[in-house]
Amino acid sequence: MRIELSGRRALVTGGTGAIGSRICAALARSGAQVIANCAEFDLAAAQEQQARWQAEGLEIALEPFDVASFEASAAAIGRIGPLDILVNCAGITRDAPLRRMQPQQWQDVLRVNLDSVFNTSRHVVEGMCERGWGRIVNISSVNGQKGQFGQTNYSAAKAGVHGFTMALAAETARKGVTVNTVSPGYIDSPMIRAVPEDVRARILEGIPAGRFGQPQDIASAVTFLCAEQAAFITGANLPVNGGQFMSA
Hints:
- This protein is α/β, with parallel strands linked by helices.
- The chain has one domain (9-232): 3-Layer(aba) Sandwich (Rossmann fold), CATH 3.40.50.720.
- It is built from nine helices and seven strands.
- Strands 3-2-1-4-5-6-7 form a seven-stranded parallel β-sheet, with helices on both faces.
- Helix 4 (103-131) packs parallel to helix 6.
- The longest helix is centred in the middle third of the chain and has 29 residues, at 103-131.
- The radius of gyration is 17 Å and the shape is globular.
- The two termini are 27 Å apart.
């Protein structure tokens, strides 16, 4: 299926990370004008990613700002201008069992993983509704569906992401704006490669597909949800986890 996004402008938060960078590339290859957000402290690494995109023949702009700040998000989106597509992909982990978790670990994860979804969506949704077309795709996680030891903060934030999706989808459905969630499972990335080999092996045993996902698996799902062909899909949670977690 050919997905055509020519003339559409997209912002991807966390757009220079392992998953975000593939989402940016997939949207750009479908014809969208793509802006990748990165953290201001990570600009040097983001510029290296931008050079890799250029080597692929892709022109993707960078917009450094703190997605955890409502004011910074407002200012950045004001600079960028009208957007047709918003992909909320920014995320961090600060893992610890609850009995040892510090308030800052809780707050940091909630601010980046959940507050950011509000901070960016709040500043694009009105324009999308006025123009009668828009796509918001929020990246959650399999651990937001099933929970995970040592991740009460992360699991709570990612479960909240889909609650946000469903509520906003109900508000915008008659305006031509769809809002959906993609929930990745364990993806082959620097994060999973940093896990001890024996732990990785146990995780892999629990994935019926017999492999870790690839960032492109997530990018393909996101790109489809941004397409005209997905106009009747809203408020949905698309799990991309190789069968690790299944729900009715």
